[in-house]
Amino acid sequence: MLDREGYRPNVGIVLLNQRNEVFWGKRVGQHSWQFPQGGIQHGENPEQAMYRELHEEIGLEPQHVQIIGRTREWLRYDVPAEFLRRSNSSSGRRTTRQAYRGQKQIWFLLRMVGRDSDVCLRATDHPEFDAWRWSPYWIPLDVVIDFKREVYELALSELARYIARGPRMMMMPWGSPLDLYRSNPHDAKKDSENS
C-alpha cells in the first residue's frame, strides 16, 4: 500500500525504560541496530499498527507499555536505488508503475511499564531482531543504516519534548545520559546547599 508519492505508511517505536534509556534491536543476521518499526496494514490506524508491531517484533502487549506521545506529522525517508534494485532482483518481483520510494512514518514514544523479562524476540515465526539492549536516549546514530539516520534524529528530537523538563533536553548532545529529575544543572548545586 503506497501513497501517491510512492511512500509506504509505517510506524516507528521509541520505547523508554524507567531510566529514560531507549530500546535498540539488532537486525537478525546483521550488524545494524534499529528501533522497532513496521508497515501499517490495510484497515489499521497508526496506533493499531504500533501495538501489532510491538508484539510481533519484541513480544510486548499493550499492558506492558504506556503511550507518552507521537510525532505530529509523517516523517519520510527514501530508500536508495541500490537497495531497491537488490530487493527487487532477489525477490524476483518487477517494479510496478507506482514506484516505491521509501517509508513515511508516525513515531510513537512509549514508556515500558512491564519488566525486561517481558521482552520476547521470538514472539512470531519470523523474528526481526536477534539481540536487544537499552541505550542512552541521545545515542550516536552511527549504528543505524545511513539512509534512516535523519528520520531517527527528527523523531528523537520531536519526541524529546514529551520527557523534557524545560529546554535543557533539546540542548543535550547526542550520547548524553538523561537526568530528567532536575530541570537545570544549577538544581544540583541548590540541592547540595539545602542539605
Describe the structure.
Accelerates the degradation of transcripts by removing pyrophosphate from the 5'-end of triphosphorylated RNA, leading to a more labile monophosphorylated state that can stimulate subsequent ribonuclease cleavage. Residues 6-157 form the Nudix hydrolase domain. Keywords: Hydrolase. Its EC number is 3.6.1.-. The protein is of the alpha+beta class and 195 residues long. It has a single domain (7-194), classed as Nucleoside Triphosphate Pyrophosphohydrolase (Alpha-Beta Complex). The protein has helices at residues 46-58, 81-91, 149-159, 168-171, 186-194; strands at 7-16, 22-27, 33-34, 37-39, 65-70, 75-78, 102-112, 129-135. The strands form two sheets. Strands 1, 4, 5, 6 and 7 form a five-stranded mixed beta sheet that branches. Strands 3-2-8 form a three-stranded antiparallel beta sheet, with no helix packed on it. The longest helix has 13 residues, at 46-58. The radius of gyration is 18 Å and the shape is globular. The chain starts with 6 loop residues before the first strand and ends with a helix. Mean pLDDT is 84; it is low at 166-171 and 177-195.
